[in-house]
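Quick start: what a row looks like.
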Amino acid sequence: MSDISLTIIDKAGTAHALTAGSGQNLMHLMREHVDMTIGTCGGEISCGTCLVQLGDGWAGGSVSVDEQDMLEALDAAPGCRLACQLSLEPTAAGITATIVAD
């Protein structure tokens, strides 16, 4: 398991430099280290509280139909994803994810 360094910008604009293992779920990482109110549905794609804007350099892989439906319901901007659907991989090293959920 390789370490992946990334930055999470919280709702107040504070940057959190974090290190994760390959395969770790982004929502779980954010709940543990940034904000426990993220992902109130537990990753079931039903609340949108883990909506993040991904910085350049990592798209997070393919988007499922269920995630796409939730992104549309949230009127999410291009480049936004649900953190509960993102499994971190080495290509995510150095990215920034900004929490945009209300």
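That is the whole record. The mean pLDDT is 94. The first strand starts at residue 3 and ends at 9.
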